[in-house]
Amino acid sequence: MNTDIVKKIKNRRLRSKLITYLIVIVFYVVVQILINTGNLSSLLTGLLVPICVYVIAAVSLNLVVGISGELSLGHAGFMCVGAYTSAFLSNVVGSALPETLRFILAILTGAVFAGLFGLLIGIPVLRLKGDYLAIVTLAFGEIIKNLMNVVYVGIDSKGLHVSTTSAMDLHLEPTGKQIIKGALGISGTPKNSNFTIGVILILLTLFIVQNLIDSRSGRAVMAARDNRIAAESIGIPVTKFKLLAFAVSAALAGVAGVLYSHNLATLNTKKFDYNTSILVLVFVVLGGIGNIRGSMIAAVILTALPEMLRFLSNYRMLIYAIVLIVMMLFNWAPAAREWRERVLSRLPFGRRKAVGKEEV
């Protein structure tokens, strides 16, 4: 391939990354201006951290669904692992560490444990073909949720105590502390999450995902997605690279869970059910499978929209459903896609993109 063409492709990819980062930064600046001027309602202000959580979850799931070409229905399960492990750590450590260091350690812990669960699930399943991954991840999400509902964990001078029957069976010392309370979840987690930290984690997630996509490993994953047999025939270890993408996606979902758990006074499993996994998948599909920016925009709009329409009372969910249908038609209907391509081709950046494709 001509050196000039390779250079143009690299420059175009770098420009695309910078535009994505710029969108996030501009969004952050605009929201901060609205907050400081008192033009953002308390309702929307309270949604800022959940929006960051869903953006991270959507971008990470797009790595599996869009880039790897696999269907995962257990993303909420990985979020649950990250949320519970990080909240447990924060409660155990308490004030023994500085607040910032403790939160960073919680983020790393949530990411590592979620990534490990991703590896454990992916190793046997990613060798299979078809929709096995969707079935297994769906089961994993339900297992994790129900397991957390029956686990009781406490700590005292003798160490950790675990029970699956009741809190009384922990036999804690009078000075002991119960951390995980079965269906009641975990309470007293430090509220370290805020909008600024959420945006930083979004930028970090984008950096990891976009660089993985543009790396040699990412190209191998996309080659396996497009034609597994052809990829295997030229020596690409398909399972290895798909497992890498799946584990990274699970780890980033764990980070989203950490952000969520440190934004609440009480953490339980109600938010980590099957419906949450489907909701995140809706963000990915409506934003465009494989489209990182689209996933981000869909997550922001569809998270804020139900609350913004709350004044319409009984009609808000009807309007929400209509918006979903319109977005789906706009993204996937052939006539809409042709119209969108015609409009983009008339724009300066659209012409450059078209020329780049012809050159390649």
Concise synopsis of the structure shown:
The chain has 360 residues and is mostly helical. The chain is 72% helix and 5% strand.
Structural class: mainly alpha
The low-pLDDT segments are 351-360
What is the succession of H and E elements?
Answer: HHHHHHEEEEHHHHEHHHHH
Helix content: over 70%
Biggest sheet: strand arrangement: 2-1-3
Distance between the termini: 8 Å
Mean pLDDT across residues: 85
Largest sheet: 3 strands, antiparallel
Query: DSSP helix count?
Result: 15
Tell how many strands the DSSP assignment holds: 5
Overall form? globular
Rounded to an integer, what's the Rg over CA atoms? Answer: 22 Å
Approximate strand percentage:
5-15%
